[in-house]
Specification:
Helix content: over 70%
Largest sheet: none
Number of strands: 0
Number of helices: 7
Order of helices and strands: HHHHHHH
Strand content: under 5%
Distance between the termini: 56 Å
Structural class: mainly alpha
């Protein structure tokens, strides 16, 4: 089997997104510990474990898309949405944790949801597996949106 450079580069990009997002998250934990949270807020260890699994699934999904649909006419659109989604993922951590902008992060998370759903829809006809791997991500971001809405309600 021939080694493909994308097997190294794509996971490194996903790790970079995770690390940068974690940096912003960690920078705001003192503030986070002072705000009102809904009773159903999961503990940080659960949130971290879920994000780890989600990032692994996303990396696999991107690898499948990259290797299976490179010559597809919407390949560039899908990759662009992946990039936008990654930027939005980091931006959300920056807005919420680092900048403590609950309202802005609530607005932004709706866009993150939209790009995640767009990825699932665009990828589905090309690879049901790659698309399905993104469903836990979409479900988690929907839950995070509901959680964030409740945080916004409790802290305005």
């Amino acid at each position: 089997m021939k080694f493909k450079l994308n097997y190294l580069i794509i996971p490194l990009i996903v790790i970079a997104v995770s690390v940068i997002g974690s940096f912003f998250t960690d920078s705001g934990m003192d503030w986070y510990d002072t705000i009102n949270l809904p009773d159903f807020t999961p503990p940080g260890s659960i949130i971290g474990a879920v994000w780890t699994v989600i990032f692994i699934l996303c990396a696999i999904s991107v690898l499948i898309v990259w290797n299976k649909t490179k010559h597809d006419k919407v390949f560039r659109i899908i990759i662009m949405i992946f990039i936008i989604n990654a930027v939005l993922n980091v931006l959300w951590s920056m807005l919420f944790f680092n900048q403590q902008m609950i309202t802005a992060s609530l607005t932004e998370i709706f866009i993150l949801n939209a790009t995640t759903l767009a990825l699932i829809i665009f990828i589905w006809p090309r690879s049901k597996l790659a698309s399905s791997l993104l469903i836990p991500y979409f479900a988690w971001v929907c839950f995070a949106t509901f959680l964030l809405y409740n945080i916004w309600q409790l802290n305005r």
